[in-house]
Design goal:
The chain is an alpha/beta fold and 224 residues long. The protein has a single domain (6-216), classed as Rossmann fold. The chain has helices spanning 17-28, 35-48, 56-65, 91-100, 104-118, 130-134, 148-159, 164-180, 202-216; strands spanning 6-10, 31-34, 68-70, 77-79, 82-83, 123-127, 140-145, 193-196. It has a 5-stranded parallel sheet, with helices on both faces. A 3-stranded antiparallel sheet has the order 3-4-5, with helices on one face. A hairpin with a 2-residue loop joins β4 (77-79) and β5. α1 crosses α9 and α2 crosses α4 (91-100). 43% of the residues are buried.
């Protein structure tokens, strides 16, 4: 292939973006980048430093200074040289990340980092604003969604923490923050394909996205 290919998968919390993006990347031999993990990493650092995640100046400084790395061929995340893959998946970090991600300066800093990552090769990147802001010219854009109740069920299953009703309420609050924040709100890019995963298995969602990739890229033979 003579040009880099970016597949952007956006959607709300609990829609299954991380799992699907990772699987698609593995199938295609692309690098998987979890943009949400970047905000979680900054939030984790803030918690460890006992900083207020809503503190604009400190959060901007952390976002600019954070050395965040994704290991090719795996789902591990490193922050300043430390493997924080498990540490960033707690509910406390998730809630703090939602606050941190609403800070414009943080988003600008991490968007710049994400774009640099995208320049290094073919990637599958997922988040809230990948197709709408980070890579508006991405070759393939998907907006992955699911019913709120199903998203809450998946989150409880994923983390093993919390009450389903409480998680559903937290997801609703996060949706509101994500959709109404002034900087890079959660929206479906005009040219993104909407995919409701509520009643679909992971295999079915993966195949639906790969089918789209095959249709969009050359004659699709490379992406079987």
């Amino acid at each position: 292939m003579d040009r880099r290919i970016i597949i952007a998968i956006d959607g709300p919390a609990g829609a299954g973006k991380s799992t699907i993006a990772r699987r698609v990347a593995e199938r295609l031999g692309f690098t998987y980048i979890d943009s949400g993990a970047m905000y979680r990493a900054v939030a984790l650092w803030a918690i460890r430093e006992k900083l207020d995640p809503a503190g604009t100046r400190h959060m901007e400084e952390l976002a600019k200074a954070a050395a965040i790395e994704f290991e090719p061929g795996s789902s591990s995340v490193r922050l300043n040289g430390e493997d924080v893959t498990a540490a960033i998946r707690t509910l406390g970090v998730s809630n703090a990340a939602s606050i941190v991600s609403a800070i414009p300066g943080v988003r600008r800093a991490l968007v710049e980092t994400q774009r640099k990552m995208g320049e290094e090769g073919n990637v599958v990147m997922e988040g809230r604003d990948i197709g709408s802001v980070v890579f508006p010219n991405a070759a393939v854009k998907v907006f992955l969604d699911a019913h709120p109740d199903e998203r809450a069920r998946r989150r409880v299953e994923q983390t093993g923490e919390g009450d389903r009703d409480a998680i559903a309420a937290q997801i609703g609050e996060r949706d509101q923050r994500d959709r109404t924040r002034p900087e890079s709100p959660l929206v479906q890019a005009p040219d993104a394909v909407y995919l409701d995963s509520t009643a679909l298995s992971q295999d079915e969602v993966e195949e639906a996205i790969l089918k789209l990739v095959r249709a969009r890229m050359s004659n699709g033979k490379e992406y079987q």
